[in-house]
Amino acid sequence: MAPSTKTVLIPIAHGTEPLEAVAMITTLRRGGADVTVASVEAQVGVDACHGIKMVADTLLSDITDSIFDLIVLPGGLPGGETLKNCKPLENMVKKQDTDGRLNAAICCAPALALGTWGLLQGKKATGYPVFMEKLAATCATAVESRVQIDGRIVTSRGPGTTIEFSITLVEQLFGKEKADEVSSILLVRPNPGEEFTFTELNKTEWLFEDTPQILVPIAEDSEETEAIALVDILRRAKANVVIAAIGNSLEVVGSCKAKLVADVLLDEVAEKSFDLIVLPGGNGAQRFASSEKLVNMLKKQAEANKPYGGICKSPVYVFEPNG
User: Fold this and answer.
1) Looking at 107-170, which runs of residues are DSSP E strands?
2) Residues 57, 30: contact at Cβ < 8 Å?
3) Which residues contact 55 (CB under 8 A, 6 or more apart)?
4) Do 82 and 17 touch, CB atoms closer than 8 A?
5) Is residue 310 within 8 Å of residue 277, measured between CB atoms?
6) Rounded to an integer, what distance in angstroms lies between the CA atom of residue 215 and that of residue 239?
7) How far apart are CA 8 and CA 33, in angstroms?
8) What are the pLDDT digits (tens) for 94-147?
């Protein structure tokens, strides 16, 4: 590791909010940080919110003596409570604060963890709306900023502010030029808090009598934030989302080396019918294009006049060559 490399710890637990955790992991790694994902559980695999499974790089218990430039806590329940109750993590974060290094938290974690541990006294902080009253009791001023910086502590509101939060952390570690570079790569809107409109082309009505059945394939080098955002949001909308891995293993390492676990192998659902098939991007799109079974499923989807979609590289590598 180069001497100038910045090190980051992201602890996760059962019930961690996966969109927040994965977006932080991938954005900080894009910025050049050496990110360690550590499970506070007894095993590296955790069952995050919304039925999403993640695999940490290590156990927190194995790295409690390590020093990091930044420790950042994701939210989610009961994950936020588990982080709060993890004494080794509390000790690491408090030492981080005493030594003048960066701490950050999002969603419920500012109130549950940083606030409970006494690290927000005299600080401005923000958090998830339903935790603002609890936050106000532990900090000087609870604010509704999307991202709030006060000294060496950075806080943010929830899944929808995670990318801004993560880019702010990149700026804290590496400076504005690097933050702008990462923001450009991710196609972040310049003023994400403002209202915006979009135009829908080729409008169609999506009507489902029963719970929509949706397939989200993933492969090695798939873009993790895109994949998890699709699954997280669609499951919040009460759709039945199946994550299917291309290849022979349920565990998939994404483009920024975040480790995800699919529900099934694609082979197991290749003959099933879905109301929607939607593909994340990243270099995994090339693996999608090489999967005869997935391409055939998409062709049948089109023939049945059922919706399908893709983001990032997938339309170019998968849809265009196959008509």
Assistant:
1) 124-125, 141-142, 147-150, 153-156
2) no
3) 44, 45, 46, 251, 259, 260, 261
4) no
5) no
6) 10
7) 7
8) 999 999 999 999 999 999 999 999 999 999 999 999 999 999 999 889 999 999
Q: State the DSSP H helix or E strand holding residue 218, giving kind and residue range, or none if neither.
A: strand 213-218
CA dihedral of residues 29, 34, 38, 44 (deg, nearest 10): 80
Residue range 156-192, pLDDT digits in tens? 999 999 999 999 999 999 999 999 999 999 998 777 6
Decide: pTM greater than 0.90.
yes
In residues, how long is the chain? 323
Q: Measured between alpha carbons, how far is 316 from 219 in angstroms, rounded to an integer?
A: 16
Is residue 106 within 8 Å of 70, Cβ to Cβ?
no
Residues 6+ apart with CB under 8 A from 68: 7, 8, 9, 36, 92, 96, 101
Q: On the CB side of 27, how many CA atoms lie within 13 Å of its CA? A: 30
Q: Which residues pair with 190 in a beta bridge?
A: none
The residue whose two tokens read 């450009």 is: 184
**231 sits in which H/E element:** helix 224-236
Any idea which residues carry the catalytic annotation? Answer: 107
* Distance of alpha carbon 139 from alpha carbon 296, whole angstroms: 56
Residue 251 backbone dihedrals phi, psi, to 5 degrees: -80, 130
Q: How many Å apart are CA 31 and CA 19, to the nearest integer?
A: 18
Beta-ladder partners of 276: 214
